[in-house]
Each structure stands twice: as C-alpha cells, then as structure tokens.
C-alpha cells in the first residue's frame, strides 16, 4: 500500500534515502518542499532530479486537505472545514495573533486542530460527540491541518510580506491547541507521531511548550504523556469540581473519577512542572453555582494549575445555555478570592472557536438532507 509521505519520521525517510543511495542533502530538500513550501505535487519540487521524483511518486502519496467551507473574517477567528480523502469532514480554527490563550504571548497565530472524526466520549454539552465516533485521524491528517491552513493563508489571502523567506517567515502558526473535534488522548500514537513532526525543526517548527493538548480526562494516557520527552502543555476539560457535577455532563468521569484524574494530573505536574490548565465551561444552572468554588480552588492549588473560565457556546438542538455575565463575573471573583489564577474569556470574537464540531455537524446534516 502506498503511504503518505507526511506519516513518515525523518529516521524512516533517512533509511529509505540510504536504500536509494541518495545523498543526505536530497532529503533536506524534500522536507523543505513538503513542510516549508508546502507544495502539493511532486513535480513542483524542481531542484530534485526527475529520477528521484519518479521514485518518490511510486513509493509515497502527497495528499492535501480540501477546503470546503470557511467561516469568519481575516482579522478575527476563522473556522476551516476540511474534507478528507474518504469524504469525512473535520474542522480547524485559526485564532489571530493578539490573544495568547495558552502558552506565551504570540506574534503569530494559534491553530486549533482536530484529532478524530466525531468523538466517542459523548459529553452532554458538546457538538463533536453528537453523532458518535467515526474514526481516528492519521498522523498526516493532523499535520496537514497546519500545512493546509498556511497554504490557504499564502495563496488565498496573500502573505503580508511577499518577499518573505520560505524557511520561516511564511509560517503562520506558532501555537497549537489540540482542542478540535475528538479526544486527542484516545488517538495517542497518531497524535504523538504528528506532534513530533510539527515540533521538529525540519517539520512544523512549533515549540513543544507552544503545543497544548486538551483532554476530557483519560487518566492512564495522561500518565503516559508525562513520560514523553517533549514538554507539552496539558489542558484538562474539568467543567465540574465534584464527581456529582462532572457525572451529570461527562460520562468519562464514571470511568476515571476525579480522584483518579487528579492523581494522574499530579503525576504530570511533578514530571513536567507548571504545565496544567483547568478548563471550566460555565453552563447555566449546571456548574455555575458557588458550591463549586472551594473544591475547584483546592484542585487548582494542588496541581499548581490556572483556571480558564469559558462561557458556554450554544449548540443547536442542545438545551444548555451560558450564564449571565453577572454570574460569570461572580464565579471569577470568588475564585480569585481563593488566590487561584483564573481568567474569564470575554471576547466576543472567540465565540466560534470553542464550539468545534458545529460547522461539520451543520454541513453533514445539510448534505444528508440534500441526498434524501
Ligand atoms: N476532547 C478534548 C478536546 C476537544 S474539546 C476535550 O474534551 O478536552 C475542546 C474543548 O472545548 C473542551 O474543553 C470542551 O469541553 C470544550 N467545548 C465543547 N463544546 C463546547 C461548547 N459548546 N462551548 C464551549 N466549550 C465547549
Ligand atoms: Fe469529545 Fe471533548 Fe466533546 Fe467531550 S468535549 S464529546 S471529549 S470532543
């Protein structure tokens, strides 16, 4: 079977090039075409001899994601809907420079990427899980979300500096959040392979500390992640500080209750330092009462974590709503009184970014209707 070039590690490609008796600099040229210039055809690789291009064509595929819809304008958050080779849809969201939501302040952009088609975890408030889980994304489908977004930026919207050097200046994405559709830690091996490529200087060149993995709380995989050499940031989708509250909205909590989740996070924190954020969506009448404050503050202090409060984004067909601004501010103030570092997302421009899965859902439903 022909495999996609972007699913190979540099070591695997080195072995192949040795077998072909190609000098090392040819591989450097190839990687430059694939990851820095992001070309989508072998024939565009003009400094590679034709004989080598023919070998590559025979051995590997070079597939790009197809952009089918885009939502949002250039200076705000933009949502991309991609079509995969089997016809399935996934989303990525591009968040502009000013807002460094995770990691350090950024002069470029944050991209939110998907890791699965659908999601099996079925959190009650989330659009991604509404129609179940279809499949894991392959490593190259995760990597391609970054490359395809940068390709789009260069061609459709014209790079702001047309004379920029290909090696670094045209790179758009320097922060990555793994918070799109799917549960990243349920697609562990493919995710790690993709992140190694996106982190490598020959690949995406994105620092590991600028990559945040978000999980609904798969405790064993959190421990496994703590053993990885790369220093990823970890975001826990907590959304409730007691088992009672969490059980109501996140079925995963029955499998890995808070005690187990907390122990795994503590292990991660001890191995990696202060790398954990607790995500807390505020949903009216579900988790926004002040009885959550004491256990939430205890947890945050124990893990040396900061808390990100996010007003819930309405999902069509679901009964949940965000609390009033007054309730949101009260919740924040109560946490701060407990000496917890907390932020409340207030910007309207971010309304579409945390609601990954919705554009896909709408498109799939429209297509199903059209087919009837
Ligand atoms: N499966 C992983 C990553 C994808 S979800 C996880 O659950 O962490 C990314 C984040 O978006 C999670 O914190 C999730 O709880 C949140 N989210 C999902 N639906 C949302 C909505 N309608 N409004 C606000 N946040 C939402
Ligand atoms: Fe899946 Fe995350 Fe949505 Fe839960 S919040 S259903 S784990 S994508």
How would you portray this structure in words?
The protein is of the alpha/beta class and 372 residues long. It has two domains: 5-59, DNA polymerase, domain 1 (Orthogonal Bundle); 66-371, TIM Barrel, CATH 3.20.20.70. It contains twelve helices and 14 strands. The strands form three sheets. A ten-stranded mixed β-sheet has the order 3-4-5-6-9-10-11-12-13-14, with helices on both faces. Helix 5 (188-199) links the parallel strand 9 (173-178) and strand 10 (211-215). Residues 161-168 have low confidence and may be disordered. The structure holds S-adenosyl-L-homocysteine and iron/sulfur cluster. Iron/sulfur cluster is lined by residues 119, 121-123, 126, 128-129, 182-183, 216, 237.
Brief sketch in words of this structure:
The protein is an alpha/beta fold and 372 residues long.
Distance between the termini: 35 Å
Tell me the Rg in angstroms. Answer: 21 Å
As a percent range, the share of strand residues is 15-25%
Number of helices: 12
- Tell me the structural class: alpha/beta
Strand count, sense and closure of the main sheet?
Answer: 10 strands, mixed
Tally the beta strands.
Answer: 14
Give the domain tally: 2
What is the CATH architecture annotation of the largest domain? Alpha-Beta Barrel
Are any ligands bound, and if so which? S-adenosyl-L-homocysteine, iron/sulfur cluster
CATH third-level topology of the largest domain = TIM Barrel
Helical residue percent band: 25-40%
In terms of per-residue confidence, which ranges show pLDDT below 50 for 5 or more consecutive residues?
A: 161-168
Order of helices and strands: EHHHEEEEEEEHEHEHEHHHEHEHEH
How would you sum up the global shape? Answer: globular
- Please write the CATH class name of the largest domain: Alpha Beta
Mean pLDDT: 89
CATH superfamily membership of the largest domain, which one? Aldolase class I
């Amino acid at each position: 079977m022909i495999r996609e070039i972007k699913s190979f590690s540099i070591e695997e490609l080195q072995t192949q090039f040795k077998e072909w008796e190609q000098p090392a600099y040819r591989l450097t040229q190839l990687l430059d075409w694939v990851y820095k210039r992001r070309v989508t055809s072998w024939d565009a690789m003009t400094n590679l001899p034709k004989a080598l291009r023919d070998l590559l064509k025979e051995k590997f595929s070079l597939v790009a994601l197809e952009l089918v819809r885009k939502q949002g304008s250039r200076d705000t958050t933009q949502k991309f809907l991609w079509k995969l080779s089997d016809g399935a849809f996934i989303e990525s969201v591009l968040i502009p420079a000013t807002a460094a939501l995770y990691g350090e302040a950024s002069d470029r952009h944050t991209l939110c990427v998907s890791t699965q088609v659908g999601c099996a975890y079925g959190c009650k408030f989330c659009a991604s899980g509404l129609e179940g889980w279809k499949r894991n994304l392959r490593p190259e489908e995760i990597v391609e979300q970054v490359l395809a977004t940068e390709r789009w930026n260069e061609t459709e919207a014209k790079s702001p500096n047309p004379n920029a050097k290909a090696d670094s200046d045209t790179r758009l994405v320097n922060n990555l959040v793994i918070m799109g559709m799917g549960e990243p830690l349920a697609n562990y091996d493919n995710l790690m392979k993709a992140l190694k490529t996106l982190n490598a200087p020959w690949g995406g060149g994105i620092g590991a500390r600028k990559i945040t993995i978000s999980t609904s709380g798969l405790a064993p995989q959190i421990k496994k992640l703590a053993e990885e050499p790369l220093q990823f940031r970890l975001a826990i989708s907590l959304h409730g500080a007691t088992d009672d509250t969490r059980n109501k909205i996140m079925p995963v909590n029955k499998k890995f209750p808070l005690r187990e989740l907390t122990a795994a996070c503590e292990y991660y924190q001890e191995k990696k330092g202060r790398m954990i954020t607790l995500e807390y969506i505020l949903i009216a009448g579900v988790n926004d009462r002040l009885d959550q404050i004491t256990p939430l503050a205890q947890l945050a202090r124990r893990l040396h974590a900061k808390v990100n409060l996010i007003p819930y984004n309405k999902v069509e067909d679901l009964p949940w709503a965000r609390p009033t601004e007054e309730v949101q501010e009260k919740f924040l103030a109560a946490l701060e009184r407990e000496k917890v570092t907390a932020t409340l997302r207030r910007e309207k421009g971010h309304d579409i970014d945390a609601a990954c899965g919705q554009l896909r859902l709408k498109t799939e439903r429209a297509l199903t209707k059209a087919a009837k």
